[in-house]
Design a protein that fits this description.
Layout lengths: L1 E4 L11 E3 L2 H10 L3 E3 L10 E3 L4 E3 L5 E2 L9 E2 L1 H9 L8 E4 L9 E5 L4 E3 L3 E7 L9 E3 L3 E3 L7 E2 L2 E4 L9 E11 L8 E5 L7 E5 L9 E12 L2 E4 L13 E3 L9 E7 L7 E12 L1
Parallel strand pairs: 7-8
Antiparallel strand pairs: 1-2, 1-3, 4-5, 5-6, 8-9, 9-10, 11-23, 12-23, 13-22, 14-15, 15-22, 16-19, 16-23, 17-18, 17-22, 19-20, 20-21
């Protein structure tokens, strides 16, 4: 039975709505508490955020967890950092960050008193898997940028990483597949990370294609952030090409600035094309 209390009873305040268990119904009747029976469970609008404790409170006035699916305080990345700095997010509180992660979903992150951290050590930032043979996510027939269409965290063809997301000790994991049409050359499309959103940014994953019509290749790599201006990566790793030596990458890299992830093809000989079939970018905390 769902009731609305007309007076205070056992910690419940007058006006609060509660679905009672059979035992609670017996207790309430025995205490002759004044209640009004309601036809349906409490409306979700009765869930409210308490800024004093950074908690989401249910109809009974008790905290509920955003992880349970009940919802919770939501912020953009910038606003979440500002709210945390102002003491509006309690230590260990979980919040939803709207602009970090898949579109319309975002991500759940926990404030540890210093940083917003992922709940399980990693978070998908952006991914797309609907590239078809002959109709890739994007394709080019000349050297230049593989400009991504609209998608999670994508702006002007690149993935934008909010300032403060990357810090020493975190990293990025990337994978993508490309397909080459034609036989005129062996292009090597690369995923680049840097501040200039250009082909001069550091490469940390490269897809080594052959000069064979219809050939495809997969790229996988990780970028480990070792300081504010250095990350370590192999841009070629088995199985997507010959191995090479891990390198400190410093060109156009500064975590205090806006960083971009973008795909570039250094050379394509017409009428050859390079198609991007899929990609996935994961943040590692």
């Amino acid at each position: 039975m769902t009731i609305r209390f007309l007076n205070d009873w056992h910690g419940y305040k007058a006006g609060q709505t509660r679905t009672l268990s059979a035992a609670e119904e017996t207790d309430a009747l025995g205490d002759r508490v004044a209640v009004a029976v309601v036809a349906a469970p409490a409306s979700p609008v009765e869930v409210r955020f308490d800024p004093a404790t950074s908690s989401l409170l249910g109809p009974d006035g008790k905290p509920v967890s955003p992880v349970s699916g009940a919802g919770g305080p939501s912020y953009t990345w910038v606003n979440a950092l500002a709210a945390a700095a102002a003491g509006q997010i309690a230590v260990n509180a979980v919040v939803r960050v709207l602009d970090v992660g898949p579109t319309a979903c975002g991500s759940l992150m926990q404030w540890d008193g210093t940083y917003l951290r992922t709940l399980n050590g990693m978070q998908t930032l952006s991914a797309k898997r609907d590239g078809a043979i002959g109709a890739g996510i994007v394709s080019v027939a000349a050297a230049g940028k593989l400009a991504l269409p609209a998608g999670p965290m994508v702006s002007s063809g690149s993935i934008l990483l909010p300032i403060g997301l990357l810090r020493a000790g975190t990293g990025l994991r990337a994978s993508f597949r490309c397909r080459h049409t034609g036989t005129a050359a062996a292009p090597s499309p690369a995923l680049r990370l840097g501040t200039t959103n250009s082909a001069s940014d550091n490469s940390f994953a490269t897809c080594a294609l052959a000069n064979t019509d219809g050939i495809g290749a997969w790229a996988f790599s990780e970028a480990n952030i070792v300081s504010s201006t250095v990350f370590v990566a192999n841009h070629l790793m088995i199985p997507n090409g010959a191995t090479n030596t891990p390198q400190n990458r410093t060109t156009n890299f500064d975590i205090a600035q806006q960083l971009y992830l973008s795909f570039w093809v250094p050379a394509v000989t017409a009428p050859d094309t390079v198609e991007l079939l899929d990609y996935e970018i994961i943040f590692r905390d």
